[in-house]
Every structure is written in structure tokens, then in C-alpha cells.
Write a structure and sequence with these properties.
279 residues, alpha/beta, seven-stranded mixed beta sheet, 33% helix, globular, disordered N terminus
């Protein structure tokens, strides 16, 4: 199926392509020389996930991950093309050769390292709960008897699924509802369909901004351990040259302070723009 193009970001020649069912034609994984020869770096992401990727008021896709990807493309001397896919399809699509890299607030973990190579971490994140302000939920075990939402394919979904299967929530009556969009899950907390949503910290804080009836709070285990993780850029294991280039850019952005500035910029933009979490 041909991937329709939405719009370019003129300054950086960023083209956003949305896959509406099906997928683009599969191709062998490209090496760095192939990327440079084509003049395009192909990225996959999932949006909205503010402040990492979300829609600005004019409809353009913006965010921390988008800026990092643009910098990588500039470093390579090519243009960036971004395609939107469901979160749980991102790594399979990368493995199928449909893109060169994935930036999507993607946590580095052992299971994902079986599917892709990851860059140096560029974000330290924590798992948070979005709950009604009146709820007395502080640790994982407090979710017993509740229906909990999480983004399909996310580490939040994995944590709750494992806890229900053979962990702290086993036989407690807790149920898991996996959804494509974290914002959809939050809407279900507002209507009472869900008792909580598990999502990463910065996203939880963005999604609860302006909702006095909701709270965003860290998710702890019964032992008091905070559930933390790190984000990385995923590339195919067959492309170590691209991974090296990505690591150079991430190191530069972190050491210069630019990455921290971008996070603050897009957190503020998402807070000021109602609807940034949904499009």
C-alpha cells in the first residue's frame, strides 16, 4: 500500500507519512551508504506522546524525538521522513526494513534488545500512574480489583501484565486494558471506565495538566522501589554505522545542554496547547 504524505516541515524538509491500515512495501534493511545515497533517513514513531511527539496547533508533528531525528538527519546530510505507526508495530516494521530507525519514547529493555540495537540512553524516565485525585493508590499492589489502562506494546502494559500473571496483582481482580493512545486511556479514567493508567512520567504530567480531578503520581513497588527506565533510539542490528552516528548526535545534544532545553521547550508547548495529546 502506498504511504500517503501529510505535509513537509519546510525548514528541515520533514515529511510526515501516515499509514492507514496495511503497510508500505517491505524492503531489505538499508546500510548507512544506502541512506546517504537515497538522501532520506526513514524514521518510525507513534503519536501523540507529548512532549516527545505530538501535533502542534498548525497540525505539524513536533517534539523532542522529532528534533533529535532532525539533528541525526542533518548530521548525515540527508532529509528526514517520518511515518506514524501503532506503537506495537514499530519494532516489527523496523525489522522488516520499512524504516532506518525508531524514536518513540522507546524504553530499552532485554526483550526489545532481541529485536533491535539501541543507542545510548537519551532520557531517564519513571513509570507513573494517572488516577482520580480522590483515589488512594500509591503502590502497584493498590491496583488490585481495578481495570488499568496502558498503551499497547509499552513497558507499562508489560509491567501490569506480568504483575497480573504471576506477580503482585495475581488473583487480585485487576484487569488490563491495552489501548493504542494514552490520551484515550486518560479519557476513560475521567469517565470511570478505568481506575488508573500506567504511562511514563513526563507524558503523565502532560496528560493530566488542566484536569483538576486527575493526579499523576510515581508508581512504586511494595518494597518502595521506583519503576524507572531509559529511552533509546532503535536501529537494525545490521546497521552499526548508523548506530554510531546516532550516538554521536545524542552525546553532543546531552553534553551541550540542548537536549534538556528541548525537553523544557516541548513540555511548555504541550501544556499551553489544549489538544496536543490528541489528533
Amino acid at each position: 500500500m502506498k504511504c500517503p504524505v501529510i505535509r513537509p516541515l519546510s525548514v528541515f524538509a520533514l515529511v510526515i507519512a501516515v499509514v492507514l491500515g496495511g503497510s508500505c512495501k517491505k524492503a531489505p534493511q538499508r546500510g548507512l551508504d544506502d541512506i546517504k545515497a537515497s538522501g532520506q533517513l526513514l524514521m518510525l514513531t507513534n503519536a501523540p506522546f507529548p512532549p516527545y511527539e505530538f501535533y502542534a496547533a498548525d497540525g505539524d508533528l513536533v517534539g523532542v524525538d522529532i528534533d533529535i531525528a532532525r539533528r541525526i538527519a542533518r548530521h548525515l546530510g540527508v532529509e528526514l521522513t517520518v511515518s506514524i505507526r501503532p506503537f506495537d508495530e514499530l519494532l516489527p516494521a523496523l525489522a522488516a526494513g520499512e524504516a532506518d530507525m525508531v524514536l518513540a519514547g522507546l524504553t530499552i529493555n532485554d526483550e526489545r534488545l532481541k529485536q533491535a540495537s539501541f543507542s545510548l540512553p537519551y532520557i531517564d524516565a519513571m513509570q507513573y500512574l494517572i488516577i482520580p485525585s480522590t483515589a488512594n493508590i500509591k503502590v502497584l499492589e493498590d491496583l488490585g480489583g481495578k481495570t488499568v489502562g496502558a498503551q499497547a506494546g509499552s513497558t507499562g502494559e508489560e509491567i501490569i501484565a506480568k504483575a497480573i500473571a504471576d506477580g503482585a496483582l495475581h488473583k487480585t481482580g485487576c484487569q488490563l486494558l491495552a489501548l493504542a493512545d494514552p490520551a484515550e486511556a486518560v479519557a476513560k479514567v475521567l469517565t470511570g471506565e478505568l481506575g488508573a493508567v500506567v504511562v511514563d512520567d513526563t507524558v503523565a504530567l502532560q496528560l493530566t495538566a488542566g484536569h483538576a480531578v486527575l493526579s499523576a503520581t510515581p508508581l512504586f513497588s511494595q518494597s518502595g522501589a521506583m519503576l524507572s527506565e531509559q529511552y533509546g533510539v532503535a536501529v537494525a542490528p545490521s546497521n552499526p554505522e548508523l548506530l554510531s552516528a546516532v550516538n554521536e548526535v545524542i552525546t553532543e545534544l546531552k553534553n551541550s545542554g540542548e537536549l534538556s532545553a528541548k525537553i523544557k521547550k516541548y513540555e511548555a508547548m504541550a501544556r499551553e496547547q489544549p489538544g496536543a495529546a490528541a489528533q
